[in-house]
Specification:
Layout lengths: L6 H15 L4 H6 L3 E8 L3 E8 L2 E6 L8 E6 H9 L4 H7 L3 E3 L2 H11 L3 H12 L4
Parallel strand pairs: 1-4
Antiparallel strand pairs: 1-2, 2-3, 4-5
Length: 133
């Protein structure tokens, strides 16, 4: 059974971590990557585009960009595991569990910047983790 019950759940938690990043010292570092990233999730189906330019990160829920610099395709459960610090994105890409279009090296450069956000994400999902099914 997937961790997220619907697209709104994905947007709240996986989109929310990017929105929260914009409010931390990590935000400007990620924004300096100067890329548009569209993430396509399955189980449940959802999509979001994260624009990172200058010192700003913006999350566009439910929006895809045909001209995004990088597009990632993965099950939402992999996104959850990644933000918990339990999933190696580079390994997932190598094994084909995560698919990418565009210069993957741009995303891999962001990975070390996201590590300080893992505790914040785990805190955000703790209530969902403990909710009765």
């Amino acid at each position: 059974m997937p961790f997220f019950k619907d697209a709104d759940d994905v947007y709240k938690y996986l989109g929310g971590v990017f929105q929260k990043a914009a409010e931390t010292e990590v935000g400007p570092k990620m924004a300096a990557a100067d890329i548009d990233l569209t993430i396509y999730y399955t189980d449940p189906e959802s999509v979001m585009t994260i624009t990172m330019h200058g010192e700003n990160i913006e999350v566009h829920i439910g929006e895809e960009r045909e001209d995004a610099d990088v597009k990632l395709f993965m099950p939402a459960d992999i996104g959850d595991k990644y933000w918990r610090g339990e999933y190696n994105l580079a390994v997932g890409l190598a094994k084909g569990h995560v698919k990418a279009k565009g210069p993957v090296n741009k995303i891999l450069k962001l990975v070390p910047l996201t590590k300080p956000l893992f505790p914040m994400y785990r805190e955000r999902v703790a209530e969902k983790d403990n909710a009765p099914v």
